[in-house]
Design a protein that fits this description.
four-stranded antiparallel sheet; about 10% helix; about 30% strand; single chain; disordered N terminus; 3 helices; mainly beta; Immunoglobulin-like; binds copper (II) ion; signal
Length: about 180
């Protein structure tokens, strides 16, 4: 009798995060990031390099694990502790992350078609609340997978409102798969 150990090698070679989600990965029906785990770890790009901001010296990491949907984990370090306790909107955006150019990130990556629906299940929302050490973490889970491309996680000045708005764009993390 066949045992379930027949997981393909490329799936086994994914990161520990993916291994933890192995059951989900095996059940996947060919999503765009099937079985894959992506880790992006980089300095945040500043949208207003001339002005001082709480994310000027911050680094961020986005982990995305594909399976029967997508689990995204966003971790930020090195935020100015002066903003401890504040919540900042953060989302996966459609366009690339370019320093000094908030508009380049385009709008939110939105999975819905017509009518367009904006909420935390049609988009990947990763709002963060900064702690006293200048760190923050959030996660999101949706039942779809974003298409490949050059994209960005944009951090905004305010928490995400019900309509998806979150104020000015402060910084971004480049992600591409
Ligand atoms: Cu956004």
């Amino acid at each position: 009798m066949q045992h379930i150990q027949s997981t393909p090698l490329w799936r086994r070679s994914a990161t520990a995060a993916a291994a933890a989600a192995a059951v989900v990965v095996v059940a996947a029906v060919a999503p765009a990031v099937a079985g894959a785990a992506f880790n992006f770890n980089d300095d945040l790009r500043d949208f207003a390099p001339a002005a001082a901001g709480p994310f000027d010296h911050a680094r961020a990491k986005l982990t995305m694990v594909g399976g029967a949907g997508t689990k995204a984990v966003f971790v930020v370090h090195g935020v100015d502790p002066a903003v401890a306790g504040q919540t900042f909107g953060a989302h996966l955006h459609l366009g690339p992350c370019v320093a000094g150019n908030g508009a380049a990130a385009l709008g939110h990556y939105n999975h819905s078609t017509t009518p367009r629906v904006v909420n935390d299940q049609t988009e990947i929302w990763l709002d963060i609340t900064v702690n006293g050490g200048g760190n923050a973490q959030s996660s999101a889970r949706v039942d779809w997978t974003p298409d490949a491309g050059m994209r960005s996680v944009v951090i905004h000045a305010k928490p995400t409102a019900a309509d998806g708005t979150a104020g000015d764009r402060l910084a971004c993390l480049p992600v591409e798969w």
